[in-house]
Design a protein that fits this description.
The protein has helices at about 90-100, 130-145, 155-170, 170-175, 225-230, 240-260, 265-280, 295-310, 330-340; strands at about 25-35, 40-45, 45-50, 50-70, 75-80, 85, 110-120, 180-185, 195-200, 210-215, 315, 325, 350. It is built from nine helices and 13 strands. The chain is about 35% helix and about 25% strand. The chain has two domains: about 10-200, Ribosomal Protein S5, domain 2 (2-Layer Sandwich), CATH 3.30.230.10; about 210-350, 2-Layer Sandwich (Alpha-Beta Plaits). The protein is globular and about 65 Å long. It binds (3R)-3-hydroxy-3-methyl-5-(phosphonooxy)pentanoic acid.
Length: about 350
């Protein structure tokens, strides 16, 4: 499979190199996203092995305030507060992120940072908080860069935030833009890149406006296998090449479907993607299963309900047991009745794209 090497020079900061002495605070809000075409497998540094496409959510967001003041030391200095409480266990991940992006954000060692962050959804509920969290932090950093005089216009700022967010958590780069976004270079989508996400550039049928994603929380708590470990297992995976090709093909097939609103084909592609992702986990060395019995039960119930009623309702899965139930806005009443009956014991987060 051909992968591409893109030049990163445009993301080097235009700021003159000096020790900055300013202080202040900036803030940003960034939603989570749900991938329809899944990113699973990467090479250094955070370059995806296949293109992915996602819906950015609306209600599930991270809100971050980044306070900065002059740093007397010559090293990174940061403190993370989550929902008002100091959270030292979140800090190593941010240190690694800062190290990775240092070449592109030259002021990181000039300041002592306090990161105050909170989510509109329960932590570790299976909603991708790393996507919204890294997205919000990257947006804050580009805001500071502008305060210091970089003069990035709105488009350049989002592009750089997406580029930086990717270095924190791959899928985060897609969260910076609302609606439908694509990350990963592919001949099927013009302007696509391995380095950052772009807003989906083609026509989208109105049926996908406010498309619903109700997340049924089958299992709450920390993931048993991190996505970093999962991506790594794709390196020696016997079916990896086929999987990367299949994601590419699914993306290609999805483009006319997003245009013509053919929901049946939409469902076939999206569910195939979700199950392919889990098939990769089940056939890696070591193998593992993230779905739980209730994940399977709900999938079967969705299939039966769809067959019996012709209501267009589909599922997708992230790297976890929770089920993302996808349906058009105009089916909300029927689907919420169905979910009340079939998933009633599990908490749900009702979100939508936009
Ligand atoms: O961004 P990461 O490294 O957490 O990986 C995300 C992987 C999936 O959520 C399973 C798929 C995706 O494209 O979001």
């Amino acid at each position: 499979m051909i992968r591409y090497f893109e030049n990163m020079d445009e993301f080097k900061s235009k700021l003159n190199h000096k020790k900055f002495e300013e202080q202040g605070s900036v803030s940003a809000v960034c939603p989570s996203n749900i991938a329809l075409i899944k990113y699973w497998g990467k090479r250094e540094i955070q370059i995806p092995m296949n293109p992915s496409l996602s819906f950015t959510l609306n209600k599930s967001r991270t809100e971050t305030e980044l306070k900065f003041k002059p740093n007397p030391t010559n090293d990174f200095s940061l403190k993370v507060f989550f929902e008002g409480n100091h959270q030292p266990d979140f800090e190593p991940k941010i240190y690694s992120f800062f190290k990775r992006i240092e070449d592109f954000v030259p002021f990181l060692k000039d300041f002592e940072f306090e990161i105050h962050t909170s989510n509109t959804f329960p932590h570790s509920s299976g909603i991708a908080s790393s996507a919204s969290g890294m997205g919000a932090l990257a947006l804050c950093l580009t805001e500071i860069e502008n305060l210091l005089g970089a003069d990035l216009n709105a488009d350049q700022k989002l592009k750089k935030a997406s580029f930086l967010a990717r270095l924190g958590s791959g899928s985060a780069c897609r969260s910076v833009y609302p609606g439908v976004t694509v990350w990963g270079k592919t001949d099927s989508v013009s302007g696509s890149s391995d380095l950052y996400a772009i807003p989906y550039p083609y026509k989208i049928h109105p049926i996908f406006k406010n498309f619903r994603d109700t997340v049924v929380l089958i299992e709450e708590g920390q993931k048993s296998v991190s996505s970093t470990a999962g991506h790594d297992l794709m390196n020696d995976h016997p079916y990896a090449e086929k999987r990367f090709e299949s994601a590419e093909e699914n993306l290609k097939k999805l483009i006319p479907v997003l245009k013509n609103g053919d929901l049946e084909t939409f469902g076939t592609i999206v569910e195939h993607e979700a199950l392919s992702l889990h098939a990769m986990m089940m056939t890696s060395h070591p193998y593992y299963i993230l779905m739980k019995p209730d994940t399977m039960k709900l999938i079967e119930n969705i299939w039966t309900f769809r067959k019996q009623t012709s209501v267009p309702v589909f599922f997708t899965l992230d790297a976890g047991a929770n089920v993302h139930v996808l349906f058009p806005e105009n089916q909300s009443e029927k689907v919420s009745q169905f979910l009340k009956e079939k998933a009633g014991n599990h908490k749900m987060i009702e979100d939508f794209t936009g």
